[in-house]
Design brief:
- It contains 13 helices and 15 strands.
- The longest helix is centred in the N-terminal third of the chain and has 42 residues.
- The chain is globular, with a radius of gyration of 28 Å.
Length: 421
């Protein structure tokens, strides 16, 4: 009898061993199914926010034909698919936005645009435009592109440094004047009036021939074109409002490549917002952040339908390349084409700022106005502000873009801190 009981105990034990894996599998399956079911319930729960993506919000906004909206003076809109009005909470910093409006109202260029961005996050701190003389619709800062002129030298220099074809001290021979560009200056062997410039000096003085030769003999078409896409050309800029796509040239011969690399062409075009992003990428160790104009969007009843978050747009270049570009851009304001506008800036309370920029000048053959660009950055103690200023005049200059940029930096770094979201 005792033996029979022992056999029974052994059979029960073996049965438990057999059932244990099956029970475990069933338990795991039940947890999985239950979790999926709860997730589906939560997804359709009225207590869970159903947020639009940035692309979805941009698509809805792009369908609105409203000039007041694109002046960013109106924050209540009716969006497709929404049962009630949507309120936009803009990301602009009040003092910087007021500064941009005051400067353009005071100096009255025929066309002007000022954009300021927090380079670390992509937050658009200010964006204001005025157009007094040209036939254009929409916001000058985002709805149109203009010849980028010598600002494109930032792309060319970055490509050469990133590909280890040059550094700020590299000496480049050239012939002729600094701001001309002729086929005779693009011969492989430099003859006649021979001159030599370092890349740093050529960038500061915006010497077209040096950058033309850099594009033809050091880089080549495809590497330069590919690097321009990393800087945001030929790409939709991800933001809440539609931004005109910037384009870089598509040269068919060596001289057109030289024009592209130096910026001496009508075929490199960009928006003022994109100009700020280019400077921001340099300031932010090579990382270009997605710009955002809107912190959040709410139904009028209070429910959130969109919230912005800092996000990477493009990893343009290495931190080392960005650092060397900052060296070049510093030379522009210290010894180069915007030296006059920044005279005396580095004394007193702004002496600790690291500042750099690039100017650009060209006639827009489509609009018939003379373009003046400044894109640049200022940073101190972790704060990185990028600025893009475009002015265009038909006959007379009323103000230089580099001077307006200086005023923007002074405003940004006079504040104890930029207003937070």
């Amino acid at each position: 009898m005792a033996e029979s009981n022992d056999q029974t105990v052994k059979k029960i034990a073996s049965l438990k061993i057999f059932l244990r894996p099956a029970m475990t599998t069933a338990l795991v399956f039940s947890i999985f199914v239950g979790g999926w079911w709860l997730g589906q319930r939560a997804k359709h729960s009225p207590f869970v926010e159903q947020l639009l993506t940035k692309e979805e919000l941009r698509t809805k906004i792009s369908k609105l034909k409203n000039d007041n909206l694109y002046s960013f003076k109106q924050n209540e809109v009716s969006l497709e698919g929404m049962k009630e009005p949507v309120v936009l909470d803009y990301a602009f910093d009040p003092s910087l936005q007021a500064m941009a409006e005051d400067l353009l109202d005071q100096y009255k260029p025929d066309l002007g645009s000022i954009v300021a961005i927090d380079a670390s996050t992509g937050r658009v701190l200010a964006m204001y435009s005025e157009n007094r003389a040209f036939v254009l619709e929409g916001n000058v800062a985002i709805a149109h592109t203009y010849p980028s002129a010598s600002v494109f030298k930032v792309v060319t220099a970055g490509a050469a440094i990133e590909d280890q074809k040059a550094n700020p001290s590299t000496l480049i021979p050239y012939a002729g004047r600094d701001h001309t560009l002729y086929k005779s200056q693009m011969k492989e062997r430099v003859s006649g009036w021979r001159r030599i410039s370092s890349l740093k000096a050529a960038f500061a003085q915006s010497i077209n021939t040096v950058f033309g030769r850099l594009g033809v003999f050091s880089l080549g078409k495809e590497p330069l074109k590919n690097f321009s896409t990393r800087f945001g050309f030929e790409t939709t800029i991800p933001s809440e409002f539609p931004v005109e796509i910037s384009h870089s040239a598509n040269p068919s011969d060596e001289f057109q490549l030289a024009e592209m690399a130096s910026g001496y062409t009508q075929d490199n075009v960009m928006s003022p917002l994109h100009g700020a992003l280019i400077a921001a990428a340099v300031a932010n160790d090579g990382v270009m952040m997605q710009p955002y104009f809107v912190n959040a969007a709410f139904l009028k009843s209070g429910k959130a339908v969109y919230r912005s978050e800092p996000a990477v747009f493009s990893k343009v270049m290495s931190p080392e390349t960005a650092k060397e570009l900052r060296t070049l851009m510093y030379e522009t304001v210290a010894t180069g084409t915007s030296k006059k506008s920044f005279r005396g800036f580095f004394r007193g309370k702004f002496s600790e700022l690291e500042v750099g920029g690039k100017t650009g000048h060209l006639t827009d053959q489509h609009l018939g106005g003379k373009i003046d660009w400044f894109v640049g950055f200022a940073q101190s103690h972790g704060r990185k502000i990028a600025v893009s200023v475009l002015t265009m005049h038909k006959k007379y200059w009323t103000v230089k873009s580099s001077f307006l940029a200086r005023k923007a930096f002074e405003t940004a770094f006079t504040q104890k801190k930029v207003a937070k979201r």
